[in-house]
Amino acid sequence: MLSYLISRLLLIIPTLLIILTINFFIVQVAPGGPVDQAIAQLEMGPQLGAALLPGSELPTLNNHQIYRGAKGLDPQIIAAIEQQYGFDRPIWQRYIDTIKSFICFDFGNSFFKSESVTGLIIKSLPVSISLGLWSTLLIYMISIPLGIRKAVKDGSKFDFWSSMMIIIGYAIPSFLLAVLLIIVFAGSRYFDIFPLRGLMSANFAELDTWGKIKDYFWHICLPTIAMVTSGFASLTMLTKNAFLDEIRKQYVVTAKAKGLSNKQVLYRHVFRNATLLIVSGFPAAFIGILFTGALLIEIIFSLNGLGLLGYEAIISRDYPVIFGTLYIFTLIGLVTKLITDLTYMLIDPRIDFEAR
User: Fold this and answer.
1) What span, in angstroms and rounded, lies between the C-alpha atoms of 301 and 295?
2) Of 39, 46, 43, 48, nearest to 69 (Cα)?
3) Helix H segments across 85-116?
4) Under a CB-based contact definition with an 8 Å cutoff, are residues 278 and 235 in contact?
């Protein structure tokens, strides 16, 4: 297992390099970059332009005479803007500098937030991981027992009505359910039970340990419910089908013929074999919840997570933040996939990836 672990860890390096390379050149050649946005905002007025480039060494940026509206900007000002954002160098040089910095986990500074990308990611990552972990944990805690129960009671009324509820939950988009939860439970004319936004109260630092725990779960309750409701349907059906497939195999009949009870057969023999298929879906489920499904939830509940940070960076063409969040997304996804493969070996010792 050690040699397999080392080879997989080494494989992460070229995978990260390929993904970053493809996205770097796609983003760099896309129209509407930070230079174009800076020029457009400067042409809209001197006040806005000066605010866009704080600390600039261009004295003319603070001079109202640089505003020419439809006449455009002086070439010297445009050249200075390109130099400030690093676009005065060839694209291959910018690429090499980016890769060198990323090797050292140095993502540079944000173009528009006057803060390091690492600092922004450190602030945002706990929110996304917290929301993703709780959602994934609850989804698995609900889906696996429910899927096993549906497999055992296949064709019964319980199976039928639970399938109906699953279909309804799956059909409701998470962002729509989030809006509904806010309307009903977050300070509207119905109930004022949960907070409307954020992950902690304004007086969070003044609370004791127990108070901080309660405040945290109080804030994360509605976002988690919105994500879990539409997320457990596919895993439930996957669990049911996996257990049904195992229950119908010959070794189950043999185990029952030896006098083992249904619970012994189900949890001692069937569970291990059926769990492999369930574990295989964990990376996709976790990454999907963490970086895709949480995006709209973070926007609706004003949660400053990694998904919202990346979305705002794409809209504003904040390239350092885009590449920094992409780097973290990819790294977490690859590490999660590796952990999943190692879990296969722990669940079923017959699986040996080193032999392949």
Assistant:
1) 10
2) 43
3) 91-103
4) yes
HSE-up of 73 (CA within 13 Å, CB side)? 26
Are 326 and 19 contacting, i.e. CB atoms less than 8 angstroms apart?
A: yes
Could you read off the pLDDT of 4-61 as tens digits, one per residue? 778 888 888 888 888 888 888 887 776 666 666 666 666 665 444 444 444 444 334 4
Count of beta carbons in the 10 Å neighbourhood of residue 253:
12
34 forms bridges with which residues in the sheet? none
**What residues does 109 pair with on adjacent strands?**
116
Distance CA 16, CA 326 (A): 10
Q: Domains in the chain, ordered, with CATH? A: 32-104 (no CATH), 118-157+232-355 (1.10.3720.10)
- Cα–Cα distance for residue pair 27/35, rounded to 1 Å: 13
Direct distance between the N- and C-terminal alpha carbons of the chain, in angstroms, rounded to an integer = 12
- Please state, in angstroms and rounded to a whole number, the distance separating the CA atoms of residues 223 and 227: 6
- 308: nearest Cα among 124, 33, 115, 119: 124
Q: Is 7 exposed, middle or buried (0-12, 13-18, 19+ CB in 10 A)?
A: exposed
Distances (CA, A) of 192 to 178, 185, 187, 225: 15, 6, 4, 17
Asked whether the beta carbons of 205 and 216 are under 8 A apart, the reply is: no
Sign for the CA dihedral angle at 202, 205, 207, 213 comes to: positive
**Alpha-carbon radius of gyration of the chain:** 26
Over the stretch 222-271, which tens digit does the pLDDT of each residue have? Answer: 888 888 887 777 788 888 888 888 887 888 778 778 877 777 777 777 77
Please give the DSSP secondary-structure letter assigned to residue 186: B
